[in-house]
Specification:
The complex is a heterodimer of chains A (171) and B (341). By secondary structure, chain A is mainly α. Chain A is built from 8 helices and no strands. Chain A has helices at residues 7-34, 37-51, 55-58, 60-82, 106-112, 116-126, 132-139, 143-158. In chain A, helix 1 (7-34) packs across helix 4, helix 2 (37-51) packs across helix 4 (60-82) and helix 7 crosses helix 8 (143-158). The radius of gyration of chain B is 23 Å and the shape is globular. In chain B, helix 4 packs antiparallel against helix 5 (191-207). Chain B has 341 residues and is of the alpha+beta class. The two termini of chain B are 29 Å apart. Chain B contains 7 helices and 13 strands. In chain B, strands 8-7-10-11-12-13-9 form a 7-stranded antiparallel sheet, with helices on one face. The chains are: A mainly alpha (171), B alpha+beta (341). At the A-B interface, helix 1, helix 2, helix 4, helix 5 and helix 6 of A face helix 1 and helix 2 of B.
Chain lengths: 171, 341
Amino acid sequence: MDHKVLPSTAGEDGFASFVAARGDALWRAAWLLTGDHHLAEDLVQTALAKSWRAWSRVGPDGFEAYVRRVLFTTYTAWWRRKWNGEHPTDVLPEVILAQPGEDRGDLIAALSLLPRGQRAVIVLRFFEDLTERQTAETLGISPGTVKSQTSRALAALRSSPRLQREESIDD
Amino acid sequence: MTENNETWLREGLADAVPTPPASPDRADRALRQARRSRRTATAAVGGAAAAVLAIAGVLAIVGNGAPADRPDRGRDIVADSPTDAPACPDEPLDAQGQRAEVPSGATAVRLCTGVGNPIEVPGDALVTGVGDLIDTINALEVLPDNVACTQELGPGFQLVFDYPGGSPVAVNGEVYGCQKVTIGDTTRTSARDVWGRFSELLAAQRKNLTPPADAVPATPNLDCTTLPAGPSVGRGEDLVAAVYCVELRNGDLVSTDLSADDLSALTADIAAHTKKNAGYVDCDVTPPVPAIIGITAWGDRVGLHAQCTNGWFTVDEPTNSVWNPSSKARVILQRLFREAR
């Protein structure tokens, strides 16, 4: 008897394979953005739920870049909504800067103090290793803004009290 | 930053990230979340159908109103209250289905956020010229199957058409890549043309109406961080309040409010000296980078951004509309630059 795979099932299988293979990588970037295990998982889930209908259109080769863009723009959209009439904060109140017994590292503590837009740029440039133009395309901003955000973020990290015990990053 | 420091930062970030927790059902949970969002959005729009019927009851109904019919074109329905049309769904509707064209007979259409980067969603729906917009969409060229599209992500919108007694029809637009416009299972191009036509029709509708009294807050709270969500159908020439912003080389943001006289002069200049399809003006410029952030009488937030050192401002990204200030306007802008603190 012939077994025909229905398009929707084939699409879901391909999507599930992608998530199994690359979900953890997305989670790591989400963790650097949110600083929290559960928020990171929420962000990845939201990005995957938003992206899944594009799976057949985008195809397996471009899908990770697509999901990454949705993940980062979702994160920065959360940040933009904070500035629209509410009392803006630079740090998500749920972020736990240190867990008992965990060695988070001064770098992560310093990163958590950056405004979210700068944090997104640092993670894309120095963790995901994207170029300035790729970072701009991911976030939907201009390369000039990426440059200035990077510059401000690095200056903030250089002067962060969290990193003063470390070897000076100007050395 | 030196190469050693870049390496330190890269290695530090890579070393600091913990091992992800096991999540074997991550894909299943994402699919369930996607389906829940679609059901919630469909229920929300269906629940508002009664409001559509109430509006239709006081309008001049053309034909029998069924989505499959084609009433005479040019006899579009005029409503008194475009703000009473059903609101945008919380999440984009599922636009898939067995159709190649938008059916005629829609009484209203909302511009909503779609798949992609956010847009600035207008508070009012289009209720005049809806047939014209439908004709524009249905006349778009169908995109060939084998076309190669650039894989960036940009602004995405969804047009939600409402029909008396019928289900809404959603059209997705991607203002990036191949500029796709998706109706059911058919993909056309270009989204930029649809955005431009919707903007023109909405501007024409607004000319005959009075903005809602609460569209603009008494104190608009404009500052250089109150950015629009994304591209806006609000026009720079229609700003009623604005602030001039500059991002300095050291990263500081300074600003000054525009006086009524300056705003009047600059909005007139924008109306006179803005060109569509003027080309890509992102020169990857370093600070100082000026911008004008403002709000229209209809509550649209608008951002005009200078991306090059030639003094041009991008006023609408989807249509590549660029304002080249006149010499008189440049005098004003240079003074604002000096005044910004």
